[in-house]
Design goal:
single chain, alpha/beta, 8-stranded mixed beta sheet, 10 helices
């Protein structure tokens, strides 16, 4: 019962990874606010309380405590209501899991402003809005834990996901900033880049043999495999862990590096564009990052 006595808000927990995290946190003793608007994968169309209600019922069937929130993370006032739901139902808030997300994949030169703004609004703005709403309470009680869901699409790269990749890399930077700013209040902030077959990954194309093989690998990875790390990071056992980015891939756990200088070159007389081309480029280009994507880096089968 690593989360005994704690109250957690898990956004986007009506299904997939979010649901598994909510279930695991409840099993670990937390009282959970199950937040989900019940929209389509693209965030369009009608909304429904059913997904959140289903997760709440699963938690209750297993002896846990949970209530629902169907407010959107993508609006400042609405995000305030999500955090307020924890206070209204359980009297406090200790954990925020920023998991809510949508997809509107499109190749960059065809991406519309609407596709860009919708994804940024839910993932990046939503993570900020909910985190900021909880920050006042975390500061007052001198404790709290954030777990943000990032993605290798942002940390490494992927095709046709400029909006999603930008948001997910932005979440990693947001988490680091929260960790720096809130450390004085004993508040921690970390990221998980999960691997799993869920509604979010079900849109991956599977037309060519290569694509089908990639999807087959992902289908082996259940969303429940990501929940233990979320529970750990939210618990007091992780009191010394903050500002980090972890990956969870089936039975593997990864710690990701942060961007740091990898090579430097100095010229006492300074540089001209011509000198950069003649001297700096040959010295630096052997350390250039390859133009790879997540599937190229994580190319082995999950075991």
């Amino acid at each position: 019962m690593m989360l005994e006595g704690k109250v957690a808000v898990v956004t986007g927990s009506g299904g997939g990874i979010g649901r598994e995290i909510a279930l695991a946190m409840a099993a670990a003793g937390a009282k959970v606010i199950v937040n989900d608007v019940g929209a389509s994968l693209s965030g369009e169309g009608p909304t429904s309380a059913t997904p959140a209600e289903q997760t709440r019922e699963l938690i209750r069937q297993r002896g846990g405590q949970a209530e629902i929130s169907t407010d959107s993370v993508a609006d400042w006032a609405s995000a305030q209501k999500i955090v307020q739901a924890a206070l209204d139902h359980f009297g406090r808030i200790d954990i925020v899991v920023n998991n809510a997300g949508i997809l509107r994949d499109q190749i960059f030169h065809r991406m519309t402003p609407e596709e860009w703004l919708a994804v940024i609004g839910v993932h990046l703005n939503g993570s900020f809005f909910v985190s900021r709403a909880a920050a006042t309470h975390f500061r007052q009680q001198q404790s709290g834990a954030y777990v943000h869901i990032t993605s290798t699409s942002g940390l490494i790269g992927n095709f046709g996901q400029a909006n999603y990749s930008a948001a997910k890399l932005g979440i990693a930077a947001l988490s680091k900033s929260i960790a720096l700013d809130m450390a004085r209040f004993n508040v921690r902030s970390n990221c998980i880049a999960p691997f799993a077959w869920s509604r979010m990954t079900s849109s991956i194309p599977a037309e060519t043999p290569e694509q089908k093989a990639r999807v087959a690998k992902i289908q082996q990875m259940g969303p429940e495999k990501n929940a233990p790390m979320a529970v750990f990071l939210a618990s007091d056992a992780a009191k010394e862990v903050t500002g980090q980015i972890f990956g969870t891939r089936h039975n593997e756990i990864f710690l990701f590096s942060h961007p740091r200088p990898v090579r430097s070159i100095h010229r006492s007389e300074g540089w001209t564009p011509e000198l950069i081309a003649e001297h700096a480029l040959p010295a630096l280009k052997t350390a250039f990052a390859p133009l790879d994507r997540s599937g190229d880096v994580f190319s082995w089968d999950p075991v």
